[in-house]
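Feature request disguised as a bug report, sorry. It would help if multi-protein outputs had a clear separator. Right now it looks like this:
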Amino acid sequence: QLQLVESGGGLVQPGGSLRLSCAASGFNLDVYAIGWFRQAPGKEREFLAAIIRGGGSTRYADSVKGRFTISRDNTRNMGYLQMNNLKPEDTAVYYCAADQSFHNVLIINPGSWGQGTQVTVSS
């Protein structure tokens, strides 16, 4: 059973940082592209960042470029999203996802999703 589990969310003040983790089980994550997405109440799910299988190429949404960094550790079957300079508008449920196709991740159509972790940015 292919499973993704996010962790690391929580409450942080504006300007603060969080590091989200995505643990994969039931499959070797190294043959999958990884993506991070978020969904705020009343809004559509939004693409944030993606990384190819080997980690040599990444893509970011303009809204997070320069503040968020996606990475992976294939030896640990893990993906990460480092989030810096967080803003109140970053408040949302954050999801990781995986697909063997990088394109599918970019178009928000990956085959596997995690359950999500809440990130709240507030003073």
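(second protein starts here, but nothing in the output says so)
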Amino acid sequence: QLQFVESGGGLVQPGGSLRLSCAASRFTLHSRAISWFRQAPGKEREGVACIPTHDNPSYADPVKGRVTISRDDAKNTVYLQMNNLKPEDTAVYYCAVKWYSCSSDINEYTFWGQGTQVTVSS
């Protein structure tokens, strides 16, 4: 069974940091673009960051300068380093894969993780 498992979420104070991980098992991340999305209560799922097979990562405007996405294909894992977290970053964070290039269209992603909760609160 294919698995894509997120971890690293939790409760953090404003200004704090978290590092999310997304580990794939039974399939390879090679030749795939991986995105992090998030969904806050009552809101639509939105893209946060994406790292393609080649080229540079891309970031959503609300997180630019605070978030870094990276990948380790040898470990079949993608990371999302989030710094200077704000209450508006509170959401369930999901990783998702598609072939080769990034897209903001969630329908283009073929496989999703189960999500990890990030709560930013004092």
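Even a blank line would do. Unrelated, but nice: The radius of gyration is 13 Å.
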